Amino acid sequence: MNGIVTSNLVKRYGTFEALKSVSLSIEEGDLYCLLGPNGAGKSTLIRILTGLMKPTSGEVNVAGLDMKRDLKKIREKVGLVSERVILYDRLTPVENLLFFASMLRIERRVALKKIESLLDKVDMIEWKDKPIRVFSTGMKQRVNFVRALLHEPSILFMDEPTLGLDPHSTRTIRNMVRELNESGRTVVLTTHIMSEAENIAKSVGIMNKGKLITTGKLEDIRASLNRDRLIITVKGRPEVPIESIDGYMSASRLDGVVKIDFRPGISMESVLPRILQMKLKVIDVDHIKPSLEDVFVELTGEKSQS
């Protein structure tokens, strides 16, 4: 069953087209990472899917509901964790969360029980009565994460949720995302960091310049490049720079041994004669399957952050 479906989604700001006919299908219970460089249209798409922004044209269906007819019902079913933290500095986590729970019409006794349980899961229970203003960015984002879960949404959207966070906060949020997804919730998160997606995603979509250029299961996206990367480890002192070998991408050196990394698609047969001509001894050969980074660079022509 599809949890989220868009058809020919377009968003224009004057003459600028932020989304260009985006058609997307995300299965119920998926953990979907939306990837792309800054300015690709990821955040615009998330704002439309959560009902915070209207598209210029196109259709949106979330949790089996039509965005145009059932916006109020959709908002009851979705949660959003944005890069921007929505909390009051002078209040404590409990005070903040009780305020947001009241806006969601959650009874105070029920809300307190949920708040304490969720703060414990994100390692913030010991800070529950301290003012938000003394918290680090990562601590604030963990409380912000709890805010989005108070009404137990069936679909959780996360827009760059770990951007600029410390390793502990990043790991805590990542583990909670996995736990939520394993319990059956659909999770959609945006990032421009490939390692984030490779660590957590079941499915991915890659956006660039307002277009969704590919979407599918993580392993299928990796396999779509259909070209292994060749790494050859050699020993010796070449008479000419190894950078002159066709397909050379990078190299690392340690104790007289050089590990040469070639571009995807370069074969052993095409580089071995040149290596032997340089009087280098081949010690090891590795064939590495394409990474998400390789696919991203191939499709967008841009390097991502790792």
Automatic annotation (TrEMBL):
Top-rank taxon: Bacteria
Domain ABC transporter stretches: 4-234
Keyword Nucleotide-binding attributed: yes
Single GO molecular function: ATP hydrolysis activity
Gene3D superfamilies attached to this UniProt entry: P-loop containing nucleotide triphosphate hydrolases (3.40.50.300)
InterPro entries, per the entry: AAA+_ATPase, ABC_transporter-like_ATP-bd, ABC_transporter_ATP-binding, DrrA1/2-like_C, P-loop_NTPase
Keywords noted in UniProt: ATP-binding, Nucleotide-binding, Transport
Pfam families in the cross-refs: ABC_tran, DrrA1-3_C
PANTHER family: ABC TRANSPORTER ATP-BINDING PROTEIN, ABC TRANSPORTER ATP-BINDING PROTEIN NATA
Protein name: ABC-type multidrug transport system, ATPase component
Lineage: Bacteria, Thermotogati, Thermotogota, Thermotogae, Kosmotogales
